[in-house]
Specification:
The protein has about 525 residues and is α+β, with helices and mostly antiparallel strands. About 45% of the residues lie in helices and about 15% in strands.
Length: about 525
């Protein structure tokens, strides 16, 4: 397999992106300036070489036809005895071509190359033969001499005379400029990167404060209750983009705070109304129920229709009384009224609740799975008894006859993961009924949530939809929680409460028991 190419990490924060963009733009600018300077210098120096070629003309290659190309000594540059350089600069190249063939070739001696002789390869000879005559200078690389600027002139004998000057000084000057430009650009980029990062950080300080304020707001519990928002983001110059963002954010926080304050006031009014209405309705409902029951005890003859009406009045009055009590309880829990805090034997409460449920629903099959040791929690015994009664009533009301309902109670404690963790009492009510519809499950613990009315009525249940809300509210008031796991053929409500006063912890030691008399 071909090795995967790792991509360079991309800057994620706005500060890093701005700094990176600034450095990239500066790098592009420095590169453009450097390239332009190098090209301009190269062109300028090459033009000077061309001027020198025009001034030199074909004098040196003309001398090659009449004299020898080997001087007596390296200092004999003027060619008095063995070579005629025609006073050309050291390193000047000359060649004579006749019929496209190089007949003579030599170079003016220099300190680095004292001899006249030049070795030309076939490629060098072909390049010399291909030079256009009388059309200015052309750069050619000769294998023995390196890069030269060559120009060709027509001779008097039908030959071609070539004169060339070395390009080494030009290349040295260009390379030096490239080195200097590279060093200066690198230093400029480093300084600009540091200074740009500091400048961007200073410029984005108001935006950073806005982000910090937004982070603090996101950590606040805004679902319910009174909410106090953190201080507003500091003001910045309103003419800048960052200043406008901060001002808009502060206005948004002001609107959110007003909305939350109005919502809290509305919730408080609603709780007060529910509590007052529930409290005031208790007496009239009890009175109606009492009069209906008293009328049913009348010794005289009563028409059957009247008897049936009185029975319905008594039944609905009792149902309304339970609903009023439940609404009053929820209102008190919402108001945060403290519950009693005493050790409660949860095992005894489960036994009593299952015994009552068996008496109320003999057509169901009731089983128990309890820990070997009693499970004790700290809380309000009356409210916990209500939690158990509501869960068992829910299982009885929403499942057909013959359904198996299993109530299990035990302790859980992960000592291996956390030796200091406290034990948790786990109460689970499981049934093999038809299950809770999927569309109802998300809001099953909300108030006045009810399943399909036809399904409920077919099993004889007609609750007000407050039972599971009370279960959730009471459980949360005890520092615990409740969950639902339901599918056709298996529904389980699980209540978890902090255990207190544990006499023994045996998470795996359970035994099945059938409820007997309390």
């Amino acid at each position: 397999m071909a090795p995967r190419i790792r991509r360079l990490p991309r800057p994620r924060t706005l500060r890093a992106r701005l700094t990176f963009g600034l450095v990239v733009l500066l790098a592009v600018g420095c590169a453009a300036v450097g390239v332009a300077a190098v090209l301009e210098l190269d062109g300028f120096l090459t033009g000077r070489i061309d001027q020198q070629l025009q001034q030199a003309g074909p004098g040196f290659p003309e001398s090659l036809e009449h004299g020898t190309t080997t001087p007596a000594k390296p200092s004999d540059h003027d060619g008095d005895e063995r070579g005629d350089t025609r006073r050309q600069a050291a390193g000047t190249f000359g060649a004579r071509l006749l019929g496209g063939t190089v007949t003579h070739a030599a170079m003016v001696p220099s300190e680095s190359r004292p001899g006249f002789d030049v070795t030309l390869t076939g490629a060098d000879r072909a390049a010399l033969a291909a030079l256009p005559v009388g059309r200015g200078g052309h750069t050619v690389r000769l294998s023995d001499l390196g890069e030269y600027r060559l120009a060709a002139w027509p001779g008097r004998d039908g030959d071609v005379l070539v004169t060339g000057l070395p390009m080494a000084p030009v290349r040295a000057a260009v390379h030096r400029l490239e080195l200097v430009a590279g060093i200066v650009s690198a230093l400029a980029l480093a300084v600009a990167g540091v200074a740009g990062a500091l400048w961007v950080r200073w410029s984005l300080r108001p935006l950073t404060r806005v982000a910090e304020t937004a982070a603090r707001v996101s950590e606040l519990p805004l679902a319910s209750g009174e909410v106090t928002l953190p201080p507003r983001a500091p003001r910045a110059d309103p003419r800048s983009e960052v200043g406008r963002v901060g001002a808009a954010f502060n206005r948004m926080l002001h609107h959110v705070e007003d909305a939350l304050t109005k919502r809290h006031a509305s919730e408080e009014r609603l709780r007060g109304f529910a509590a007052d209405a529930s409290h005031e309705l208790r007496t009239p409902v009890a009175t109606v129920r009492g009069h209906a029951e008293l009328a049913l005890l009348h010794p005289g003859p009563v028409p059957p229709e009247v008897t049936r009406a009185l029975e319905r009045i008594a039944a609905e009055s009792a149902r309304m009384g339970e609903m009023v009590d439940e609404m009053l309880l929820l209102a008190r829990l919402d108001a945060g009224r403290p519950l009693d805090r005493h050790p409660v034997d949860l095992t005894r409460l489960v036994l009593d609740a299952v015994t009552d449920a068996r008496a109320a629903g003999p057509e169901h099959r009731w089983t128990l799975e309890l820990a070997e040791e009693p499970v004790t929690v700290t809380g309000d015994a009356h409210r916990l008894q209500q939690v158990l009664a509501n869960l068992l009533a829910n299982a009885r009301a929403h499942t057909p006859a013959g359904t198996k309902v299993t109530v299990s109670l035990g302790l859980e404690c992960d000592r291996e993961a956390d030796p200091e963790s406290a034990a948790t009492a786990v109460l689970r009510v499981h049934d093999d009924g038809p299950g809770v519809p999927e569309e109802v499950q998300p809001g099953v613990f909300e108030r006045f949530t009810r399943a399909d009315r036809r399904r409920t009525d077919s099993f004889g249940g007609a609750g007000a939809g407050l039972g599971l809300s009370i279960v959730a509210a009471v459980t949360e008031a005890h520092g615990g929680g409740v969950g639902l796991d339901s599918r056709p053929g298996s529904t389980a409500f699980t209540v978890r409460l902090p255990a207190g006063g544990v006499q023994g912890l045996s998470s795996g030691s359970r035994r099945a028991r059938k409820p007997g008399p309390a």
